[in-house]
Amino acid sequence: MPVGAKAMIVREALQGLFDALVTEGYRTLGPTLREGAIVYDDVRHVSELPAGWTDSQEAGRYQLRRREDAAWFGFNVGPHSWKRFLHPPLELLWSARRSGDSFEITVPAAEAKLALIGVRACELHAIAIQDRVFCAGRYRDDSYQARRTDTFIVAVNCGQAGGTCFCVSMGSGPKAAAGFDLSLTELLGADRATFLVEVGSEAGARMLERIASRPPTEAELAGAQAALERTAARMGRKLDTTHLRELLREQAGHPRWDEAGERCLSCGNCTMVCPTCFCTSVEDHSSLDGAAAGRVRLWDSCFTLDFSYVHGGSVRHSTGARYRHWLAHKLSYWIDQFGTSGCVGCGRCITWCPVGIDITEEAAALRTPGRAKRKEVTHEEP
Amino acid sequence: MDRRLRLAVWKFASCDGCQLSLLDCEDELLAVAEALEIASFPEASSAVAPGPYDLSLVEGSITTAHDAERIREVRRQSRHVVTLGACATAGGIQALRNFASIDELVAAVYPSPGYIETLATSTPIGAHVPVDFELRGCPINKVQLLEVISAFLAGRRPAVAAHSVCIECKRRGTACVMVQGVPCLGPVTHAGCAALCPAYGRGCYGCYGPMESANVTALARRWQALGATPQRFEQALRSFNAAAAGLQRK
Ligand code: SF4
Ligand code: SF4
Ligand code: SF4
Ligand code: SF4
Would you tell me which residues 178-197 of chain A have a C-beta closer than 8 angstroms to some C-beta of chain B? Predict the structure, then answer.
């Protein structure tokens, strides 16, 4: 089947795809229920998917709810993103052991190749952004590159919008447009549930050939299209992106930053859940006897004081300055650095901010002139 | 001649829990003893060798005039002083006295208050002598303790972060309990426990004291929105690290 081809599979046939991926040596990852939320973890059987569950999301609020139907993918993005697996929160870069007068360095062996099942449109965009950050510049991140080389991606088109979603504003959804091997649209017919499958790559085509499919009817194609249009019309949030890059630069002295700094906990949750935030710190460890050492890389956040620590102190000392840096990097400096916005409108930073600070609301507030304030001199490079 | 660096462990007003964390390092204790000469550690051995010491680990807070003198002597005898736990770094649970009248407390607790000689406050070691490194927690995390000792031996900076528990919570992959309705102190609490409580569905209790830039006022508003009374929030803060500067409301 050529790239772009569409086919129908009965819903249960998805198990065949899981099995085929496992046979090919993939570690299959997908959505599953845990700790009252839908998270991404190892999933080998369709029975582990959150069938019949959905989520309700608001700023600082997340709740699982039962659906009236038994949809397998009838929810939106949760606390995890695929970044967990492609750019893990803690990674041993190398370890070393003393031998005689010298030492030996060991680099961890390559892990199993990953199959990501249930990747949403905004997440495809986020992965593409991290690909650019880690692999396209002058300095390539070898371990990220290794994990990405063989990733198999099964996307899912969103059949509904979450309360904090705004992918339409960011041009990143709700339809999975590129960057997948196969994409699924779940169609819940009165008598039986099916998936409309779209082929996104040759690897995807080869996988699809291993399960039974048939061509879609006009009605099925129209049904899938209508579902996407409904989703697009019901975004929980929107963000006006007109001149956003310039706005963030011009409003560095806006009083809203200090005001946000009073509400913000500088806890770092927003950066941790954001599927594009890539910052890390590096720690060296050594054993008591000095015979072994290791270097680990951990997710870091621009909300910590250490992040901007230079000789004598932190550059961004106030919480307002740190909040400004986060928003300005996402929506403005990111474009200078990588030619794309750093935000894909997934809404995670809104839902998972413990005090419900809303990136769309904060960005909108900058468009209303605040009381005049001396513009601070800022030398905040991305 | 013994070329190992000399270690001493000291106890002030405390429950011994942090010193026990060192004894609890069963698998690593031999390596510690090989790397350092354990010159004085009364909790573990009655054989006490005199100073000076290269590294002093200090547990407990200062609650008596005698201890205020004793910590000066410890400092004089020690090249490096590392304080361990909520008592030594913030005054401990016994610093609740700082918010009340000491005479009334003594009268309420002891049948013959006349025998009690104590200070009106419980204060951290750092309020009395310069401290080289403070390791937080009630009790401390033994992995962090070993990190501090290994770093000391290697002459490097210990990898102990001062940011929120939330960052550890997210790295761990826990679905935030507060966003699901359970009040949590994680956003104002210093990391170190690897976000243990939220991983078991409980809000953070604040064992590690305030993180580097704790916004207590903003968190108080959130707790209230979640149905916790201001009194309940106040009580949550009034525990092991009650007197820590970073937790006082402006
Ligand atoms: S900034 Fe917020 S909404 Fe945008 S991609 Fe990151 S987490 Fe999602
Ligand atoms: S500096 Fe930018 S990429 Fe890094 S954590 Fe902050 S917002 Fe995210
Ligand atoms: S915006 Fe919210 S999630 Fe981000 S640091 Fe501030 S309080 Fe934490
Ligand atoms: S559960 Fe507590 S510690 Fe974890 S992210 Fe939420 S607020 Fe922070």
Answer: none
Contact state of B170 with A89 under an 8 Å Cβ cutoff:
yes
Residues B26 and B91 in one domain: yes
Residues of A in contact with B149 (CB under 8 A): 288
ipTM score over 0.90, yes or no? yes
* Any B CB within 8 A of A264 CB: yes
Q: Total structural domains in chain B?
A: 2
Q: How far apart are CA B219 and CA B178, in angstroms?
A: 11
Q: Please tell me whether residues B62 and B140 are part of one structural domain.
A: yes
pLDDT in tens, B133-170: 999 999 999 999 999 999 999 999 999 999 999 999 99
Interface test with B, best of A265, A270, A325, A352 (most B CBs within 10 A): A265
A232/chain B closest Cα distance in angstroms: 26
Give pTM, 2 decimals. 0.95
Name the β-bridge partners of A110.
none
Query: Is there a single domain that holds both residue B81 and residue B171?
Result: no
Which domain covers residue B196, as residue numbers? Answer: 165-247
What are the extents of the domains in chain A? 6-93+108-233, 244-282+301-365
Give the number of whichever ligand sits closest to the CA of residue A126: 1
Residue type for B209, please? G
Query: A23 in the Ramachandran plot: left (φ > 0), alpha (ψ -120 to 50) or beta?
Result: alpha
- Token reading at A298: 């951990």
In Å, how far from its chain's centre is CA A240? 21
